């Protein structure tokens, strides 16, 4: 959820500075999560690609005015306060990511067919499953919209937050959690995101989270950053949202992915069994996302990633930045907007 922080083959001619704009091999597709949103995201794709425009139109047809306005209007015009709400940000990012993917295919910026593999951070896992052919766009959008709403409402029900510990490993994060919970009886605090080596995000009750941050900074000399989020994502406090998501997933058609798609909670490819995919998505709401493990899996399994380039879908460049900590030698090409 929280993202705190290869050359292309010859084809259509020069695009961005120093790269070509058409890939000869199937790419590794990385899909961003919540926090990547910004007002106006996807506008360049919408203007340059009819396929991207169609995705925004299809999203508006599905969601109507249930978010207060058409989703595309909020994405393009804001206000930021509306776009940043979890119930809006999640479908907005999902739609923008899929629009950029469809735009890339229409403009022949990627090799035809399925990607070599796909992975997404938290919310981005739904994008990855859609790109990988496991879920139809409209069905995935309904899931993402419900997920965002359920998480927003679960967040509003209890005083909770998240905190990034920069320079921490799992052992140090556990030390901070134990210190805080000994002093905040009956509260919740867990490690929620293992984004990259040296970056762990804690999630839980606000008092416990703040106490852990103080201990981390004062005693362990770590950099502790309180995050601007609605609540304690990927923690037991999201159990009500997980229950609602489970009901929705039970009624959603899911197929075996056409390419390996990584699961956040295991750091390994999803199984082909649709029920297993549903279970991993439910577990994701109350368990830590292990993006660092996902990238370690890719690094150890070049037969899965293949010879293609690694790309990050719109919006933003969050995962490109995180990759510098996971595997500094790995180049990721961002497609926040189409090549010029």
TrEMBL record:
Record-given protein name: Malonyl-CoA:ACP transacylase (MAT) domain-containing protein
GO molecular function, one term: transferase activity
Family: Belongs to the FabD family.
Entry superkingdom: Eukaryota
SUPFAM superfamilies xref list: FabD/lysophospholipase-like, Probable ACP-binding domain of malonyl-CoA ACP transacylase
Provenance organism: Rhodosorus marinus
Record-annotated Malonyl-CoA:ACP transacylase (MAT) domain positions: 30-332
